[in-house]
Amino acid sequence: MTKGAGGPRSAGETHPKRPTSQPSGRQIAPGRPSLAVRAVEISIGWALRLTAVTTTLGTYAAVLFDLDGVLTPTAEVHMRAWERMFSDFLARRGDTRPYTEQDYYDYVDGKPRYDGVRSFLASRGIELPEGSPDDQPEAETVCGLGNRKNREFSGVLETDGVRAFAGSVRLLDQLTDQKVAVAVVSSSRNARPVLRAAGLLDRFEVIVDGNVATERELPGKPAPDTFVAAAEELGVPVDRAVVMEDALSGVAAGRAGGFGLVVGVDRGAGADKLIESGADIVVADLGELVTDGPS
Length: 295
Ligand SMILES: [Mg+2]
What we know:
Number of strands: 6
Oligomer: single chain
CATH class of the largest domain: Alpha Beta
Bound molecules: magnesium ion
Strand order of the largest sheet: 3-2-1-4-5-6
Strand content: 5-15%
Radius of gyration: 21 Å
Helix content: 40-55%
Shape: globular
CATH topology of the largest domain: Rossmann fold
Order of helices and strands: HEHHHHHEHEHHEHEHE
Distance between the termini: 29 Å
Largest sheet: 6 strands, parallel
Number of domains: 2
Number of helices: 11
């Protein structure tokens, strides 16, 4: 809707791609819509799109939910556990470049545990032996570091418990009323304990988690295979299924799988990056997709 807004363009005229990219102090040419007008046009376009998604969501055959950061605020728990583990690991090596939140979003978020370790280490040019999933958390191996992070995560889950996002539960209730099938697709091996702790375990007929992926040798996100497996298990073609994800890797998986709709949930990855990775629309909370609106 915003493309070409303001009528035909004269030769050599260039519109900024986004209103925010216009240098400050730049004059608006006569006849060109002002920044404010273009910003309003963009937000109207976005609102129409959100309304379209909200009203058509119930017509899809299935919705496949990521877990951490989409249904439960456990992304933050994972994030803290990763940070504690990697910061300690880097400090012990005498590496002064700190592990940052951006590292989490760029290399770790949404991926299977050991892939996350490998990906971050590669970004720092650090090589460790792979080890094996049976490695003790103290082992200086890819698997050892992954297990160390999991020990941190399980500790927090046990002491603090977990409560599902209220907006996500409302959307889940609505979809169940509309007879839309629902599944959880999570890279985490902790998906079932987290769902149980949040009181949601019996709400999903299909759960494709990190354990299922390992058993069936399915590559993790950003590969689409775990989402495709969930759709197959529900007996739903991918173009009739919706993917809901908060991680760039998960959104990319939804796009790569050819799903009917990919909803990005911005819990910190950034709306722009989620769109770049393949989200059709981005919301801040799933309550925005409930037909009677967020509350
Ligand atoms: Mg997630």
